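Need a sequence for this fold. Nothing fancy.
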């Protein structure tokens, strides 16, 4: 369970098989909307902006908000946020689903980044943005340290460690995971969500809030496919090695190659595909 309502809820189902039907108690993944309102100061005046509505798994919402703001380039570090809290004066059905984030006074950022439609559903992110020109990544290319090499054995071991720790998925089969590992294969953080992009935002935000260096000798594993936005978020966070159980898209591969990121897909216990950044794998 996670947060006030948890990642899963019980539900009575009718199971059909060749022997007939039977009633069973099952668990399903929770999906609820989260609205993030942003408060920021410009030229001595405070402004409030309805920034984001996303369909997510309740819990770890502060990680989600911080990771999203960081991945979008609105903040550059944890201390750019003055406070985060849930709004109290809301309708009963909105309780715990509306949160407000206040940035530090006079934070230097481009308010035009807020003039985009950030409504997203649980399977998508980029399609919630209104302008085609937002589908780009302005981050610098990632550095390469010739002394840093990750063994094939370590990469192959990541799936075994994920299976034993992905509690919500094991109960429901309906949650994605984003996991942070040391180069040695030791697991540091795991976040689950019904949305792939939310799981990664939660992981990035949790790393920032816990003071973990996301780009130094780290690997991030994603439980699903890799879209452009997933690579974009990872590059913006400085993540040099991105591994996925599923397939990458063409834009994801091109962006990873352009930004010197190691991108691995179709990870199995005995094989995987390297799409870019082979030099980091030994």
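Here you go.
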């Amino acid at each position: 369970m996670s947060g006030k309502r948890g990642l899963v809820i019980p539900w009575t189902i009718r199971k059909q098989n060749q022997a007939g039907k039977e009633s069973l108690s099952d668990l399903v993944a929770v999906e609820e909307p989260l609205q993030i309102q942003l408060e920021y100061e410009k030229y001595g005046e405070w402004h409030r902006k309805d920034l984001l509505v996303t369909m997510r798994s309740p819990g770890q919402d502060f990680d989600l908000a911080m990771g999203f703001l960081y991945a979008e380039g609105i903040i550059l570090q944890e201390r750019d946020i003055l406070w985060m809290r849930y709004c109290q004066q809301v309708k009963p059905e909105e309780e715990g689903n509306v949160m407000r984030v206040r940035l530090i006074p006079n934070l230097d950022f481009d308010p035009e980044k807020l003039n985009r439609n950030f409504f997203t559903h649980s399977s998508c992110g980029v399609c919630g943005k209104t302008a085609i020109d937002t589908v780009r990544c302005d981050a610098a290319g990632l550095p390469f340290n010739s002394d840093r090499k990750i063994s094939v054995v370590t990469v192959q071991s990541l799936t075994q460690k994920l299976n034993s720790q992905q509690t919500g998925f094991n109960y429901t089969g309906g949650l994605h995971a984003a996991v942070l590992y040391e180069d040695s294969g030791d697991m540091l953080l795991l976040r689950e969500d019904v949305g792939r992009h939310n799981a990664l935002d939660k992981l990035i935000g949790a790393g920032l809030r816990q003071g973990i260096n996301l780009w130094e000798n780290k690997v991030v594993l994603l439980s699903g496919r890799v879209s452009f936005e997933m690579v974009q978020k990872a590059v913006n966070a400085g993540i040099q090695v991105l591994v996925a159980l599923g397939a990458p898209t063409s834009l994801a591969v091109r962006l990873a190659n352009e930004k010197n990121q190691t991108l691995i897909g179709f990870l199995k216990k005995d094989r995987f595909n390297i799409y870019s950044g082979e030099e980091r794998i030994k």
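For context: The chain has a mean pLDDT of 86.
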